[in-house]
Amino acid sequence: MGDNGPNYRNLGWIGTAVLMPKAQIGLGVLGIPSVLSSVGLIPGVMLLLVIGGIATWSDYIVGVFKMRHRHVYGIDDVGEMLFGPIGREIFAVALCLFLTFISGSAMLSISIAFNALSNNAICTAIFVVIAALVTFAFASIRTLSRISPLAWAGAASIIISAFIVTIAVGVQDRPAAAPKQGAWQSDYKLFNRPSFAEAQKAISTIIFAYAGTPAFFPIVSEMRDPRQYTKALVTCQTLISVTYITIGVVIYYYCGTYVTSPALGSAGPTIKKVSYGVALPGLFVTAILWTHLPAKYVFVRILRGSPHLTANTLIHWITWIGSTLTITIVAYIIASSVPVFDDLVSLVGALFGTFLTIQTMGMMWLFDNWSSSSRDHNRRWLIGSLWSVFTILAGTYLMIGGTYSCILAIVKSYRESGGTSAWSCADNSSS
């Protein structure tokens, strides 16, 4: 860094603690109430705490690994250290697909918001196209510095909208989907009896809600004092866990089996419009950011070492627009072909969230400790080894079982249709 250059390591621990939730709190919070509906109130809270604890350990390992290997900036660098050049490519592809699937989930959520606000004024498939076009236009802005400030407002709008619904369900007579006649009493259950597939799907949704771990690599890289990373991490994880549990428990307690996914439709029609109206900017920002980032990675990989990378040449623009357009199209196809919100977010959590948030961090601990010349077989090393192996095996089981269960749920929704079939014109805001 030159004397007049920007300071890329100027992030304090408080700024880090504020920045971390932005990487995690998003679409996942909107699926938490349906998780509690699936497994029951007490098991749901226990799952949130357990998975949140595992995710916190994984996030902690990110900081430890970064302190030992200062050259690591992203999870693809970790892949290269663990498995060589092939590992870098595998991890890079997994990360790009993960972000693209999140973008697709956001586009689907945008179509739900449009339907809620307009009473299904036009075909849902057209709303998805509109979401994709707007996303492509803003994601094509070349510099992240012009986009990233929007993320603060985006994360805030989603959280505010979720709390609007949380407050509304506590004061309203009954949830929107409940019978309109007769006395109403919530049918929430402390314990439910989900099938294997339903339980796996619920776990995958929670993993999705905590799967911001890959974003923590660049965050810790820009800290003034990375030794304060753990303090910031504990603050962050406490905040988001309290938020998830509060929103999930209150909405499910008052709505019972009539909770919707996304949860913003759980209150009455007026609150539904208000909450989706408040959340809409955040949904757009999510789609834009998670389209821009994988597109930027593809763009840089294609033009790395070429003068066209930083020059305003025809090749530069064709490559950049081609990258953003490709990611947008893939995200659009995902949003249109898997048109049920909770099915899609649980699929993302199972297929990519586990790999990038659980197994990889177990491998990172073993990489640093298994073959170290300073290794001694004490109790701490044994516990660390057993835990790391457990996270790898458990994460692999959850990835396989969760993906299988999500595919079953998607197939079931195709069979039942009910307004949620692919490229459908039916209203998807009423589920």
TrEMBL record:
<feature type="transmembrane region" description="Helical">
    <location>
        <begin position="347"/>
        <end position="367"/>
    </location>
</feature>
<keyword id="KW-0472">Membrane</keyword>
<protein>
    <recommendedName>
        <fullName>Amino acid transporter transmembrane domain-containing protein</fullName>
    </recommendedName>
</protein>
<dbReference type="GO" id="GO:0015179">
    <property type="term" value="F:L-amino acid transmembrane transporter activity"/>
</dbReference>
<comment type="similarity">
    <text>Belongs to the amino acid/polyamine transporter 2 family.</text>
</comment>
<dbReference type="InterPro" id="IPR013057">
    <property type="entry name" value="AA_transpt_TM"/>
</dbReference>
<feature type="transmembrane region" description="Helical">
    <location>
        <begin position="119"/>
        <end position="138"/>
    </location>
</feature>
<dbReference type="GO" id="GO:0016020">
    <property type="term" value="C:membrane"/>
</dbReference>
<feature type="transmembrane region" description="Helical">
    <location>
        <begin position="232"/>
        <end position="254"/>
    </location>
</feature>
<feature type="domain" description="Amino acid transporter transmembrane">
    <location>
        <begin position="11"/>
        <end position="407"/>
    </location>
</feature>
<feature type="transmembrane region" description="Helical">
    <location>
        <begin position="274"/>
        <end position="293"/>
    </location>
</feature>
<keyword id="KW-0812">Transmembrane</keyword>
<feature type="transmembrane region" description="Helical">
    <location>
        <begin position="150"/>
        <end position="171"/>
    </location>
</feature>
<dbReference type="Pfam" id="PF01490">
    <property type="entry name" value="Aa_trans"/>
</dbReference>
<feature type="transmembrane region" description="Helical">
    <location>
        <begin position="12"/>
        <end position="35"/>
    </location>
</feature>
<feature type="transmembrane region" description="Helical">
    <location>
        <begin position="90"/>
        <end position="113"/>
    </location>
</feature>
<feature type="transmembrane region" description="Helical">
    <location>
        <begin position="202"/>
        <end position="220"/>
    </location>
</feature>
<feature type="transmembrane region" description="Helical">
    <location>
        <begin position="41"/>
        <end position="62"/>
    </location>
</feature>
<keyword id="KW-1133">Transmembrane helix</keyword>
<feature type="transmembrane region" description="Helical">
    <location>
        <begin position="387"/>
        <end position="411"/>
    </location>
</feature>
<feature type="transmembrane region" description="Helical">
    <location>
        <begin position="314"/>
        <end position="335"/>
    </location>
</feature>
